[in-house]
Amino acid sequence: MTIYALSSGPGMAGIAVIRVSGPRAADATKLLIKSELPKPRIATIKKFNKINNSELIDEGILIWFPSPHSYTGEDMSEIHVHGSIAVVRSILDQLSKIEDCRLAEPGEFTKLAFQNGKINLLKAESISDLISAETEIQRQQAIKIMSGKSSEKFNSLREKLLKILSNVEAKIDFPEDDLPDDVIKNIKIDSEKVRNEIEKILNDQKVGERIREGFKIAIIGPANAGKSSLLNYLSNRDVAIVSEIAGTTRDVIEAHLNLDGYPVVISDTAGIRESQNEIEKKGIKLALKRAEDADLNIIVIEPKSVNFTGFLNDLISEKSIIVINKIDLGYKNINHQIEKFNPIFLSIKKETNLDELINRIKDKLKNKFVSSNDTLITRERHRQSLEACVQNLKNFDEKNTQEDFDKAAEDLRLATRHLGMIVGKVDVEEILGSIFSDFCIGK
User: Fold this and answer.
1) Per-residue pLDDT, 32
2) Is residue 113 situated within a structural domain?
3) Is 352 helix (H, G, I), strand (E, B) or coil?
4) How far apart are alpha carbons 86 and 88 in whole angstroms?
5) Which of 82, 238, 331, 387 has its CA 20 to 30 A from that of 231?
6) Is the backbone of residue 38 left (phi > 0), alpha (psi -120 to 50) or beta?
7) How far apart (Å, rounded) are the C-alpha atoms in residues 73 and 117?
8) Residue 243 is part of a domain; what is its CATH number?
9) What band does 430 get if pLDDT is binned at 50, 70 and 90?
10) Average pLDDT of every residue of the chain
11) DSSP letter (8 states) at residue 222
12) Is 3:92 a contact under the CB 8 Å cutoff?
């Protein structure tokens, strides 16, 4: 089947790029230009017409990429026309009339590139991350993964395991033969080295995921303390409804921010208090769960609500910043126990000391992202595969020590398989759908 799609952004623009890939890409393109294809990889001015008559749709650039020297590995053409909604719609409509041609699914061009051996899974994911990058640090991470550093590391570890496996299988196949002593000894040593390397990779404080998904900040505190006002201030827009009525926020409200190049997802949560309202109680439960999962909690309270016997005592930790809001109303009678937690006294309404809070947040961000240069894991599926690999290596070591070589070899095969799943060295059809569905149509 031949697929086609708009690969540039939707809507009105100076230029639009439409891709056509598959066995009928050449025929479909010829029907549009009413002539032979240009020389490969040379941008050529062409007139694009309706397929059933000679009515001109637009004049633009055509680039022809014959198989296998294309992004997808198949015959592929790129049609560059004016970015008019009407022009794009007309060309897509003409392509839909051609037999065995259909609109591409999200990420299908990149999926074909993977299936045809043009890229591995890590590069496919990094392409998606680069497209969706909103901050400089996200762009840098995506480019680093695209360069192949992660692939080289995981392939190297996998090759080491395959070598160990060959030695174990030699022990199984030739039990009566005298294998060199150093081979048997090195099976244990080498497997422990690989396991230690993977455990070191896993001990990265999840920096890669934080960069890709955003550093998670939860604004929590009692009702009517100024949480929604703080979210609006940090977002520089009215994200949340602000009201004097306590309990206005019932659900979690998120905003994606860029703080000095660091991606941040900041959440406003329901005010924590005793409530008989079922909807508000669910909101409070969500707030506490969001606080538990967050990388940083900003606890917003006001002088009269400083109470260490309730939720406040439970939420204060190393990942918390305590904010005393509404100091414009006076705070001389505040509980002095709070001072040992190094709170920030501010007034959101008067915009007092908010720069101090932002600087404190930035310091937290810098500390969390300090090891980003050595990060190899950017997605949860990478981490799960590596954790499974480590567990299988532990099982292997135990059975190998007991000289149960048949079962030990199976654990080693499983460990190798989990490493292979990261870069796509094994059958990974079950995860392809979830990976490529994150792409936009046309990529």
Assistant:
1) 97
2) no
3) strand
4) 6
5) 331
6) beta
7) 8
8) 3.40.50.300
9) very low
10) 85
11) S
12) no
Rounded to an integer, what distance in angstroms lies between the CA atom of residue 372 and that of residue 32? Answer: 48
Longest alpha-carbon distance in the chain:
87
Q: Residue 364: CB partners within 8 Å, gap ≥ 6?
A: 296, 321
Distance CA(375)–CA(427), nearest Å, equals 26
Q: What is the structure's pLDDT at 439?
A: 63
Q: What are the E-state strand segments in 271-420?
A: 296-301, 320-324, 344-345
**303 DSSP 8-state letter:** G
> Residue 233 CA to chain centroid, in angstroms?
27
393 shares a domain with 339: no
Among residues 291, 247, 292, the alpha carbon closest in space to that of 270 is found at 247
What range does the domain containing 148 cover? 124-204+377-436
CA angle 426, 184, 200 (to 5 degrees): 55
Q: Can you tell me which residue has the tokens 């992004």?
A: 71
Q: What is the pLDDT of residue 434?
A: 54
Residues 298 and 354 in one domain: yes
| Separation between Cα atoms, residue 239 and residue 233, nearest integer Å | 9
Highest mean pLDDT: which range of 74-83, 139-148, 356-365:
74-83
Contact by Cβ (8 Å): 154, 197: no
Instruction: Please count the other Cβ atoms lying within 10 Å of the Cβ belonging to residue 179.
Output: 13
Give the pLDDT confidence of 335-391 residue by residue, as tens digits. Answer: 666 777 888 988 888 888 899 999 999 888 887 776 556 789 999 999 999 999 999
Which ranges constitute the DSSP H helices of 65-180? 85-96, 108-115, 121-132, 136-146, 149-173
220 and 353, same domain (yes or no):
yes
In the chain, the amino acid numbered 394 is K
Residues 223 and 196 in one domain: no
Q: Give every strand in the sheet of 101-103, ordered side by side.
A: 44-49, 56-65, 76-83, 13-21, 2-6, 101-103
> For 148, phi and psi rounded to 5 degrees?
100, 5
CB 266 within 8 A of CB 280: no
Higher pLDDT, 141 or 181: 141
